[in-house]
Amino acid sequence: MRIDIITCLPELFDGPMNQSIIKRSQQKGLVDIFIHDLRPYSVNKQKSIDDYAYGGGAGMVMMIEPIDRCITALKQNLSYDEIIYLTPDGEGLTQGICNQLSLNKNIILLCGHYKGVDERVREHLITRELSIGDYVLSGGELAAMVLADALIRLIPGVLNDESSALTDSFQDSLLAPPVYTRPAIYNGWDVPAILQSGNEAKINDWRYELAVKRTKERRPDLLK
Ligand code: ADE
Fold first, then answer.
1. pTM above 0.90, yes or no
2. I want to staple 176 with a disulfide (CB 3.0 to 4.6 A). Which of 94, 135, 169, 193 is the partner?
3. Domain shared by 142 and 171, yes or no
4. What is the overall mean pLDDT for the chain?
């Protein structure tokens, strides 16, 4: 999978995209991530990428021209399955959407800033709009990183233990059951005996039961 990210703050991606699973997935050749600074695509002398809103009001609006030029340049070399704009008023991101998007070959993520992008970007250049939650971030960069992380771990071969992405919370509309590791007793708090029994069928039943219980208690909406 190839992910092209368009941003006016490219440095923000330096750390998170170069650590741990995301770093290894790139080293293994399973994912290519390219960060594109929007500013060089500006058409004016000041290299601006935002301007005042028509009709007045506080806050700057990201201009269509630099965004269009950047997307057009990318599309000259590749065809993209989705061009996604991260925005708080987009469709809420779910594990189901992540599963679906992880099957794509090439996607573009566009990060908004200030008051957002000129509406014509959304009408004519974008194929999908996603929000990572009902709160407003200073920009779409953190949301793009969340989305990229959630997608990359679903790509076959990225996780060492392939089954582990399938047993994540939300994969079957259930939260994941509790997990434990050594020591078996700490401070008098012990690990449930069943998990130490070696009886795989019973352990699976227990895990399913606890996953259902936890989901009922914490996220009953998932069971509907
Ligand atoms: N940009 C700002 N807030 C956001 C959010 N909640 N989701 C996606 N993009 C955003």
1. yes
2. 169
3. no
4. 95
